[in-house]
Amino acid sequence: MWARQALEAQTAALDLSARLGLLAVTASMVWLDLLAPPAVRETPAQRARREAPARTARLVRRGIPASEARRGLRVL
């Protein structure tokens, strides 16, 4: 009887410690997301990919053909 209760208590303690560990990892991930703004984590290649459609549209409005604008030419 005592052995069974001890085993159940040990199982509950292990489950609680596992859940607390997951909570700690989740909290630290959330804290890191709040601490590091997305603009800081964004690489130049990601930024270029994100800004490409707007850049192409601007070049087309300036009179550059769409096929040329999509090629990534720099217009001064």
Quick overview:
The protein is mainly alpha-helical and 76 residues long.
How many strand units? 0
* Unreliable stretches covering 5 or more consecutive residues: none
Helix content: over 70%
Radius of gyration: 27 Å
The total of helices stands at 4
Question: Notable features of this structure?
Answer:
single chain, 76 residues, mainly alpha, 2 domains, 4 helices, 80% helix
Give me the secondary-structure topology.
Layout: H1 2-35, H2 38-41, H3 44-61, H4 66-70
Question: What does this 3D model show about the protein?
Answer:
Helix content is 80%, strand content 0%. By secondary structure, it is mostly helical. It folds into 2 domains: 1-35; 43-76, no CATH class. The longest helix has 34 residues, at 2-35. The radius of gyration is 27 Å and the shape is rod-shaped. The protein starts with a helix and ends in a 6-residue tail after the last helix. The mean pLDDT is 86.
